[in-house]
Amino acid sequence: MTHWIIAPVILPALLAPIIGFVMRHDIGLARAASFAGTIALLAISVGLTVMAAGGETFVYELGNWPAPFGIVLVLDRLAAVMLLLTALLAIVVLLHATATGWDARGRHFHALFQFQLMGVMGAFLTGDAFNLFVFFEVLLIASYGLMIHSGGRVRMKAGLQYVVMNLAGSTLFLFALGTVYAATGTLNIADLAEKVRALPVEDAALVRVAAVLLMMVFAIKAALFPVQFWLPATYSNAPAPVAALFAIMTKVGAYAIIRVHTIVFGPDVAVTDGLTATWLMPAAVITLAVGAVGVLGARRLMPLLSFAVVGSMGTMMIAVAAFTPYAMTSALYYLVHSTFSAAALFLLADLVVSRRQGGDLLRAEPPTVQNGLFAALFFAGAIGMAGMPPLSGFLGKLMILDAMKPTPEMVTAWVAILVGSLVTIVGFARAGSILFWKATAMAPDASEEADAAAEPNAEADAARRPAGEDAAKRPAGAMEVAPTVLALAMLVVLAAGAGPVAQYLEAASGQLFDPAGYVSAVLGGQGEAGQ
Amino acid sequence: MELVVASSVGVLTAGGVYLILRLRAFPVILGLALLSYAVNVFLFATGRLAINAPPVLQLYGEASYTDPLPQALVLTAIVISFGMTAVLVMVALGAYLEADDDRIDLEPDEEAQAETTAKKETGA
Lengths: 531, 124
Known about the structure:
The complex is a heterodimer.
Chain A: H1 7-21, H2 27-53, E1 58-61, E2 72-75, H3 77-99, H4 109-125, H5 129-147, H6 153-184, H7 189-198, H8 204-222, H9 230-237, H10 240-264, H11 275-297, H12 301-322, H13 325-353, H14 371-386, H15 392-404, H16 410-441, H17 447-454, H18 458-464, H19 469-473, H20 478-496, H21 498-512, H22 515-523, H23 526-530
Helix pairs in contact in A: 1-2, 1-4, 2-3, 2-4, 3-4, 3-10, 3-13, 3-20, 4-5, 5-6, 6-8, 6-9, 7-22, 8-10, 9-10, 9-12, 10-12, 10-13, 11-12, 11-16, 12-13, 12-15, 12-16, 13-14, 13-15, 13-20, 13-21, 14-16, 14-20
Chain B: H1 2-20, H2 25-45, H3 68-99, H4 108-123
Helix pairs in contact in B: 1-2, 2-3
Protein name (chain B): Multisubunit potassium/proton antiporter, PhaC subunit
Keywords (chain B): Cell membrane, Membrane, Transmembrane, Transmembrane helix
Family (chain B): Belongs to the CPA3 antiporters (TC 2.A.63) subunit C family.
């Protein structure tokens, strides 16, 4: 039974090379295999979530080597939730990429997609810090391929920046892991939790350096200030379905911070006493501010959405930085919500941008074929992202505000979140009215002018809009709109089922703040093995 | 010994960081390569420096030995950084061929053009 724990890693790992080597000339076959694999992944994730719901922490020892000598995969409630979230998002993104033909505009989309899933799933499951690094590399190397999928001058340049940024980040990760190992002599997360707690406070210097280095590395992935700058350039130049999939990548960084900085360097640890929260809180607040201002100032739709993602990471990390169980519950709820709302907006943006003359430039031009439909979807997505009722963003932000009330940072957090939300709403309202509302006032013959004005950007836009002129006039079919609607439906489900979801997440964060359970589950067999 | 290892890590890192901050793709790639060398040496040292000692402890007791785990970590790190550098070179080459120059930054004129067009359209 416990063998199912490794299935989310094994399945895409086997499927990806088969798609890459055997099915590379047959897009239909590759699509079918990719769908079958992702649906199976979803089924496995649901099974694992149900399995973990009982509260037991399941441990899978690779090669049957007992921890801390071997690598372990650990399944608890948090890991299960993240698996389920990834699988659901993958289905939505895959549907969109297939329906809009994005997957056929370059090579090996489905193989890279599966490798990406493998890396993400592995990062959520692993119980070993060095293994976490390896899975980070797996998901990054796949994301490099996806980022430059279908090519184009601007996209290649942005892709190069993205690769360089992440390679530097990986090097920093290795430095951090080396420091951790030098200070404690282990890299198993559960073992680290024990060793760090047993360390005398006089020898804290090296461990404190390691804790902050690790946080820095995860902050790069989670796009926290001051290392958030790669995100807008990357997301806004990536193919839209890939940007939607990348919504989970920032969450991988957030997950790693949550995992490592509660279990290992938690608030109860003497040597790193409050160190994480001290740095995380201001970083999160500034991230939120940067995101909100970016949304307000963006001149293109894709960067606007990217900044909205940055802002949502800031909101979430404010709750994480409080390091209380209730705040963690609200952060996890908001994490699930922001993943789907970002995905929905990116997918919708793809539908709109590919039908506009000026690409994603925010300026008035004649309405696209289905202006009303797109406007309605954008409205729903923006409500979700900005955190207005009735969608789940409102509940998420409400929970965060409520959770921050008893903490000393209450004023900062409330002001940041409320003002940030307001600015985000204004930014989205501006974008929505330019894109959809002003369009209805324009006569169709104005399109000639708009065309001429768009000329200087033709090359840049071509990269974002490879579908060509014919596609611009074509209304989006039901299959193309379905993934966006599906992602928005997730927000509705999340809002309607807020009670049960919050209960599950509360139990998950309860597990996080009880490292003893995690440690004893992982190192439980150590006694026998040592004898 | 300690001095040699520490200063080589330091010099490699400093050189790597300097090169990463350059504007062209080629020095940046070299910089990342230097950084990965630095981190490999650093990882080696995390198991403490022991000379002429076997990597695996044969007999329990006072025998001197080298920690074998960092060596395994370094091996993994070398393989990964090698693969990543290859990918990086391919992406850089692709970007160079697409854009006809190897500048690493996104051109500001493009952004500016977008901005002026946007102003013209929306400001009116």
